[in-house]
Structure formats: C-alpha cells, structure tokens
Amino acid sequence: MEVRLTDDQKAFVRRAIENGRYVREEDALEEALSLWEARERRRAEILAAVNQAEASFARGEGRRITTREETAQLADEIKRRGLSRFAAEETNR
C-alpha cells in the first residue's frame, strides 16, 4: 500500500523522529493507525450501547429523566455504583 502524506504531515512525522519519539517513519504511522483502530473500536462499542439502550427503552425498561432533581438523583446513583465497583476492584487486587 502506498500512502501519500501532506507536507505538514511529513514535517510532523520528521519532528517526532528528530525529537526521539520514533525511530522510523513507519513507527509513527503504525501508532497512528493503532490509535485510529482503537478509536473506531470504541466508537462501535458506544454505538452498540446506544442501540441497546434504545431497544431497552422501547421495551419499557428505561426511565425518563426530565427534571434537574431526577438528573441529580441519577448522577448520585451512578457515582455510588462506580465507587462500589472501584472498591470491589481494589479489594480483589
């Protein structure tokens, strides 16, 4: 595969090599592709979660949040669950 970079992109890669961040141009491009791949995987996960949430809501399993108080309550619940999970992970280490 042949890849053509803009002059700015070439200069960006050259600076990274000059600064010691990478040894070869290929190393910089491999990392860029790896980051892109990870971002796309995360994007697919988010879209799948949104689809799952919409389907759950359509089945009547969700709850509607319409007031600031309801939003604050939900945020508190999420925070409590997160802290609980964190504590459990710390215990298991």
Fold blueprint:
Elements: H1 7-18, H2 25-58, H3 68-92
List keywords for this structure.
mainly alpha
What features would you describe in this structure?
The chain has 93 residues and is mainly α. It folds into two domains: 1-62, no CATH class; 64-93. It contains three helices and no strands. It starts with 6 loop residues before the first helix and ends with a helix.
Biggest beta sheet attributes: none
Return residue spans where pLDDT drops below 50 for at least 5 consecutive residues: none
Question: What's the mean pLDDT score?
Answer: 94
SS-based class: mainly alpha
Helix content bin: over 70%
What is the end-to-end distance?
A: 45 Å
What is the helix/strand order? HHH
Rg (C-alpha, Å): 22 Å
Per DSSP E runs of 2 or more residues, the count of β-strands stands at 0
Overall shape: it is elongated
Percent range for β-strand residues: under 5%
Count of individual helical segments: 3
Number of domains: 2
Please provide a brief summary of the model:
This protein is mostly helical and 93 residues long.
